[in-house]
């Protein structure tokens, strides 16, 4: 059998042995003897008798192994006009002091800390500092507006909120302090302290926010707390099908083992090499592949505070690869679509030395074949699509370059990684034949690294993922498997949409539109967009007896989403309609509306309540 087949088979039939072997590659405090066990509460956990600390593995262990002078983190910000480099020795010092700062504020094992920050080194340092103490971090993407932040503060109930004075976007400074202020006004839970990193671009203006730099001066460096492998490392909120985001919980032990394994088996990296995930620490890609995995592997990780285009041009990615000798670049296809749009002939690529670059990985949305072909042609590098989710924390399918390289098939994210057993199921849970589309499901148990529960809501964990198909995790994605075992992920089959690699819930956007005093009911669908993959489009039905200026109302609804969810929602249009097309049981025909908007063929469901409602929608698209 090939290396991949052997490893995949071993992880399937002797999972405990396989993963305990992987676990032994890390410097545990107490090595686990147990693989997957069922706890007293019926929940399954990896490595229950192991003890470790993820921050130790990611930082201290490399210093202890004599690699303290190696670069751990490079911060490159064309927006701030700064590059800053940290060796493992430097990073250890920063993380110890930041952990001391938190301890001084009373943060202990199990306490939550919300981190609302832009892409600056302090975000990574803060995450590692929490891990060092056994505190549970919950990073909120800096592009989310006050309401989203407030919802997360109420759910995670942090003792401390860590933030920065501002984020930097092209031609604008995103002021965090007013956003924080209104989030705290909206939230029921109030943290004991709000600590703010004062950036040179914006001073602290709020008197009750504490200056991070001042606390650091007096902080006593803190050492690592010994943790159980099963202790939670972080909560990361992601969009579900309802308005309430789901707090995905990840543990210390399984997470460290899975990510460390992925760095070798999938990304084919070795200690000392430079790994760049061009994402944001607020997303799972940032958690796993900006912060934890590259550091667990002893690589140099790169934090890039910039855009693929406009900072200053479409050569930005290639410039960073050249300047920092990047070996692996990982980004979302939308970033390459943006580069291609601005530099269609790849002229700027030729200005840079890409000899260090071995591979370009893409994820976050389906890698469309034209973007794959363009990137391969112009970069002259292998381009690998891999599929994963916030919930899994690492790739479910991919081309496992460290084990074996499979030929690329456009439109496919390749084969299941060892540990993941992927099946395509029909509505009744029967396995589909090759080539037949269905629900993509993962056979239980899940490998290490995947979510262990939804924060404070085990029932939601079970109902969202485990109830639909007995013995399987339901991914929420649809697609098919071909005769060679390649997986083709075609898109979400629920009400989640993907905007520029960002996952959004149409239910959440509907809750915001529906909150307007004039709106009786509404629907949001994701329609195809050349650059961002999908963008949301809203429809609203007004309450009886209100006759606003429709243009004004549409603008107000767009602004409401921008203010409450954030600019990244990219909801640019809301159509006011007389009624929404529904089935007789009252279900809005979102899938039919989406097909209409995208100009695809559609069938009018036989259960439609009023066909004229669909005609009205159709007229809007003419
Ligand atoms: N903080 C505050 N605002 C933010 C933000 C952040 N971290 N990130 C984005 N925004 C704002 C932008 O400034 C923009 O505001 P505007 O409407 O006032 O112009 C809005 O949100 C939309 O941003 P974005 O989706 O980034 O669109 P764009 O047109 O500025 O850029 C791309 C398009 C393709 C270049 C960009 O979406 C991109 O780089 N995507 C990659 C996504 C990614 O890394 N995903 C992670 C998954 S791997
Ligand atoms: P998130 O949890 O934000 O990472 O979003 C996960 C969702 O993004 C998945 O459920 C998919 O719908 C989509 N996705 C991520 N990577 C891919 C990929 N390589 N191919 C197709 N869809 C993807």
TrEMBL record:
The highest taxon in the source lineage is Bacteria
Gene3D superfamilies membership: 3.30.300.30, N-terminal domain of ligase-like
Q: Which InterPro entries match?
A: ACAS_N (IPR032387), AMP-bd_C (IPR025110), AMP-bd_C_sf (IPR045851), AMP-binding_CS (IPR020845), AMP-dep_synth/lig_dom (IPR000873), ANL_N_sf (IPR042099)
Domain Acetyl-coenzyme A synthetase N-terminal residues, every copy: 4-57
Q: Which PROSITE patterns match?
A: AMP_BINDING
Q: Which Pfam families match?
A: ACAS_N, AMP-binding, AMP-binding_C
List GO molecular-function terms, semicolon-separated.
Answer: propionate-CoA ligase activity
User: In this protein, which residues make up the domain named AMP-dependent synthetase/ligase?
Assistant: 66-442
EC number(s): the record gives 6.2.1.17
Domain AMP-binding enzyme C-terminal, first and last residues per copy: 508-587
Answer whether the UniProt record assigns the keyword Nucleus to this protein: no
Which keywords annotate this record? Ligase
> What is its EC class?
ligase
Q: Which PANTHER family match?
A: ACYL-COA SYNTHETASE, ACYL-COA SYNTHETASE SHORT-CHAIN FAMILY MEMBER 3, MITOCHONDRIAL
Which family does the record claim for this protein? Answer: Belongs to the ATP-dependent AMP-binding enzyme family.
Its protein name is Propionate--CoA ligase
| Organism encoding this protein | Reinekea forsetii
- Its gene name is prpE
């Amino acid at each position: 059998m090939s290396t991949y087949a052997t490893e995949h088979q071993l992880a399937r039939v002797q999972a405990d042995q396989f993963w305990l072997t992987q676990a032994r590659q890390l410097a545990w405090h107490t090595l686990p003897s147990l693989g997957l066990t069922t706890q007293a509460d019926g929940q399954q956990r990896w490595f229950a008798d192991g003890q470790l600390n993820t921050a130790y593995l990611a930082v201290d262990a490399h210093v202890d192994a004599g690699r303290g002078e190696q670069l751990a983190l490079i911060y490159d910000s064309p927006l701030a006009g700064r590059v800053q480099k940290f060796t493992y020795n430097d990073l250890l010092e920063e993380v110890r002091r930041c952990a001391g700062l938190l301890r001084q504020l009373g943060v202990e094992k199990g306490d939550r800390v919300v981190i609302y920050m832009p892409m600056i080194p302090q975000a990574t340092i803060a995450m590692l500092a929490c891990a060092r103490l056994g505190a549970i971090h919950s990073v909120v993407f800096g592009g989310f507006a006050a309401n989203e932040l407030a919802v997360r503060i109420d759910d995670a109930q942090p003792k401390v909120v860590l933030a920065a004075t501002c984020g930097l976007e092209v031609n604008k400074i995103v002021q965090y302090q007013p956003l924080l202020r209104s989030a705290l006004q909206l939230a029921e839970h109030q943290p004991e302290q709000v600590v703010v990193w004062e950036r040179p671009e914006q001073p602290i203006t709020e008197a009750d926010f504490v200056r991070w730099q001042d606390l650091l001066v007096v902080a006593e460096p803190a050492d690592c707390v010994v943790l159980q492998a099963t202790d939670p490392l972080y909560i990361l909120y992601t969009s579900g099908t309802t308005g309430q985001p789901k707090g995905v919980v990840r543990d210390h032990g399984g997470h460290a083992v899975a990510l460390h394994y992925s760095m070798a088996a999938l990304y084919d990296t070795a200690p000392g090499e430079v790994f760049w995930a061009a994402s944001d620490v607020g997303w799972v890609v940032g958690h796993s592949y900006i912060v934890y995995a590259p550091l667990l592997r002893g690589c140099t990780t790169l934090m890039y505070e910039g855009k693929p285009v406009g900072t200053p041009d479409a050569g930005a990615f290639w410039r960073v690869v050249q300047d920092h000798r990047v070996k692996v670049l990982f980004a979302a296809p939308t970033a390459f679509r943006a580069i291609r749009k601005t530099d269609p002939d790849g002229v700027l690529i030729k200005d840079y030395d890409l000899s260090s670059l071995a591979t370009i990985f893409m994820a976050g949305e389906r890698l469309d074949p034209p973007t794959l072909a363009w990137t391969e042609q112009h970069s002259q590098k292998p381009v690998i699509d891999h599929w994963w989710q916030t919930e899994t924390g690492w790739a479910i399918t991919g081309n496992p370059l460290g084990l074996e390289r499979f030929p690329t098939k456009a439109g496919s994210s390749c084969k299941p990684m060892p540990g993941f057993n992927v099946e395509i199921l029909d509505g009744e849970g029967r396995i589909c034949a090759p080539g037949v589309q269905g629900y993509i499901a993962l056979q239980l148990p899940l490998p290490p690294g995947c979510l262990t529960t939804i924060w404070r809501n085990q029932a939601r964990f079970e109902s969202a993922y485990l109830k639909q198909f007995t013995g399987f995790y339901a991914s929420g994605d649809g697609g098919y498997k071909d005769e060679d075992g390649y997986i083709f992920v075609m898109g979400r089959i629920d009400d989640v949409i993907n905007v520029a690699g960002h996952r959004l819930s149409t239910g959440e956007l509907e809750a915001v539109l529906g909150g307007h005093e004039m709106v009786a009911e509404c629907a949001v669908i994701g329609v195809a967009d050349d650059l961002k993959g999908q963008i949301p489009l809203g429809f609203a039905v007004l309450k009886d007896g209100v006759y606003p200026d429709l243009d004004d109302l549409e603008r107000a609804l767009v602004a409401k989403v921008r203010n409450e969810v954030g600019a990244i929602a990219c909801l640019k249009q809301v159509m006011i309609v007389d009624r929404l097309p529904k089935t007789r049981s009252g279900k809005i025909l979102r899938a039919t509306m989406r097909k209409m908007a995208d100009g695809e063929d559609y069938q009018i469901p036989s259960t439609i309540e009023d066909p004229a409602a669909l005609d009205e929608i159709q007229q809007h698209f003419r």
